[in-house]
Amino acid sequence: METASTIHTDFDLCYRALLSRDARFDGRFFTAVTTTGIYCRPICPATTPLEQHVRFYACAAAAEAAGFRACRRCHPEASPGSPDWNVRADLVARALHLIADGVVNTEGVRGLAQRLSVSERHIHRELVAEVGVGPLALARSRRAQTARLLLDQTSLSLTTIAFSAGFNSIRQFNESMQAAFGCAPSELRQRTCPANNGDGKLTLRLHYRPPLALDPLLAYLERRALPGIEEVSAGCYRRTVAFQRSRGIIEIEPIAGKNALLVHLQLNDLSELGLIVQRCRQLFDLDADPAAIADILGADPLLASLVEAQPGLRIPGAINGFELALRAILGQQVSIAGARTLCARMVTRCGEKISEPQGSLTHFFPTPEQILAADLQGLGLTQARIQAIQALARAVVTEGLGLERDAERERTNAQLLSLPGIGPWTASYIAMRALGDPNALPATDLGLRHAFEAHGLKTDARSILSYAEKWRPWRAYATHYLWNTL
Fold first, then answer.
1. Alpha-carbon distance 443 to 12, whole Å?
2. Residues designated catalytic
3. Of 33, 187, 180, 52, whose CA–CA distance to 41 is shortest?
4. For residue range 360-390, what is the model confidence (pLDDT) as tens digits?
5. In what residue span(s) does the HTH araC/xylS-type domain sit (predicted)?
């Protein structure tokens, strides 16, 4: 299987994708044209350049480092992210997730290296070898891309955009935008942007590779919507979000006829805007490659008709990994409705109320520290369940348990399994949704057993694991296809 670190080195493959404007490769490599000094997405509608004038790069930052400027027609900054790093989940993949979350902006390369438990030199060397540039260049490109999106899609002032994108000064903002796009930020904003309708909301477009099976994704989220925290209504997902500095409400809804979703953000602080946008992309699995998934799963007679009936099925991710893990514990051996009730009681007791409730959205999900400080008696939880929840919160606060996309999956799995009340099913479910592991497989799941039984297959965990070898590296997607039949 081609990966993000190698696909751009296959010139013939990339050029064929360029000729056909193949959307499957959007975001997986970028095309630079030596005669114009511009780099584009593979789907750019511009006239295809001659082979001798083309260079291919693994990421936008590498093209920029080579002296190319971003195309103003196809907007490389709006392309979906590469799905390859979720498959790999190695050191480079974890570093890229952290950079996308803004860690280099706030903690520098030293902070990035410390989070990964390696030296600054080592992570620089590994990134250069895989994607062509080091962490500083990647972070600079990410800031410029975020700023360009805000320039293009909002009416925010240039100063607000600069600091929301993660720049430390206006001078740094101007220099980076000049290098990435060949002009000053004010020149990029050549048209009047729509106002925010007076409601304080910021609206952005999140692009994805088609197709996207949105109805089953929203149905999955709606069945599990946590009262006070989230709701799904009329095809729109809404929820409260709380990060270190930014908190507020997000809304996500489709755009008719476009391969994009609209995200409306109402935040008290925009300094973590890039992080929140990344979490929204992860929640709706917008960086997935549905064609690659269909190629593997569609070849299995057990799944072929399901893949054909629901092309582009996505795995719901998580805005907050701790929240997802806690809800997974509460969902053990109870119905979905029962788990929602238990969790809603916990939110009411432990979570912070939002200052101005909006409809059914009234609280922020409690932090691990709030869970540890709270009395969980009288909520209808067994003592064993209370101990499991407190152990999870303690592991996050004091033992460095990582529950986001940048976590080291094997270590996280081992830590989870060492906690009371967490077994293989729960650990796999957390890996699937919080860690974004596309190969996670809850082999002991009752729903999987029912699906296998309905097709006359053996239903013990060993047999399911053996059969699922043909699904690699998309076993989590296969699981969701089978869950949807129940």
1. 40
2. 40, 445
3. 33
4. 999 999 999 999 999 999 999 999 999 999 9
5. 93-191
DSSP 96: H
Instruction: Please provide the DSSP assignment of 57-92 as one string.
Output: ESSHHHHHHTT-EE-TTT-GGGSPPPTHHHHH-SHH
Q: How many domains does the chain have?
A: 5
User: H or E stretch including 258?
Assistant: none
8 Å CB contact between 428 and 315: no
- What are 233-273's pLDDT values in tens digits? 999 999 999 999 999 999 999 998 889 999 999 999 999 99
Question: Which parts of 145-300 are beta strand (E)?
Answer: 202-207, 230-233, 236-242, 247-254, 260-267
Residue with tokens 């998309």: 474
Q: How far apart are CA 245 and CA 273, in angstroms?
A: 10
Q: Return the CATH number at 282.
A: 3.30.310.20
* Alpha carbons 285 and 199: distance in angstroms, whole number: 28
Q: Strand runs (DSSP E) across 87-126, as ranges?
A: none
Residue of 298, 318, 317 whose CA lies nearest to 308:
298
Asked whether residue 116 falls in the same domain as residue 210, the answer is no
Alpha helices in 158-213 (DSSP H): 158-164, 170-181, 185-188
Query: Which domain, by its residues, includes 287?
Result: 202-309
